[in-house]
Amino acid sequence: MILLTTTRIGEEAEEVVNKVTDNLNQEANIFKSYFQGKLPELATFGIKVILALVFFFIGRIIIKCICNLTQKSLVRSSADKGVEQFVNSLVKTTLYILLVIVLVTNLGVETTSIAALVASGGVAIGLALQGSLSNFAGGVLILLLKPFVVGDYIIEDSHGNEGTVKEIQMFYTKLSTVDNKTVVIPNGTLANSSLTNVTARDIRQLDLQITISYHADLKKAKQVIEQVLVSNESVIKNEEHQVFVSDLAPAGVIIGARGWIKTEQFSGVRWQILEDIKLSLDKEGVALAVGSIAAMK
What pTM was estimated for this model as a whole? Predict the structure, then answer.
C-alpha cells in the first residue's frame, strides 16, 4: 500500500514537471519566433542608432567649423566684440537644435509628429522659457542700442553689481570685478534697469572735497591744492580745473577741487593726488579737520 502511494506521487510529480517543461518550451518557441520576426527591425534600428551617433560627432565638427568661420568673418568686418560673442552663441545653439531634429527624424520619428508635439507644448514651453526669452530680447537690445560694449566698466544700479564687461552672450552678460570675480547678470535685467557706464567717455572729472580747519589759512590751502592739480602730469591741462570753497560745515571749511583725467588712469591718479594734497598741506602747516578728505568715486 505504501509502495503504491509512493509510485502514484512520483507519477503526479513527473506529470507536473512535464507540464512545466512543455509550457517553458512553448514560451521559448513563442519568444524565439517573435525575436526572429523582429530581428531585421532591431538590426535596422541598431544601425540607425550607430549612424546617428556617427553623424552627431561629425555634425559637432561641422558646427565648430561654421562657428569659427562666422567668428572670423565678424572679426574681419570689425564687428563689436559683444556682437561677435552674441552671434557666435546664437549660431551654435541654432545649429545644435537643427542637428538634433535631423537625427531624431532619421531614427524614424516623423517631422509631423515633432511639429505636433512642439505645437501642443508651445504654451507650456513659452511659459517655462519666459525668463530666457526676456533675456534673449534683452541681449538683442543691448547689441542694438549699445549702452555698453565689451571692455566697459559698468555699475548695475538696481543690485549694485559692477565690473568690466567680458562677455555678452545670448542670455547673460559676464562681468569681471576688480578682485577678479566673475559676475553673471541676465540680459533682461541689464536691459530693463538703469546702469552707469563708467568708461563710456575718454575722460572723467575728478571731484574732491577737502575739509580744512577754520583756523587754517584758507588762501594758502587753495594755492597748495591748485598747485598739486597743475603739477600732476595726468591732469589734462587744456580742460578746466577748479579749486573753490564748497561749503562751510560744522567740522571745517570744505574746499572743492575738480580736474579732468583720462578714464583709464582715473583711480590711480585720484589716489596719487589725494596723497600729494595731504603731504603738501602738512608741509605748509595747513591743518585738516577731522574726516577731512572725501572724494566722489
Answer: 0.55
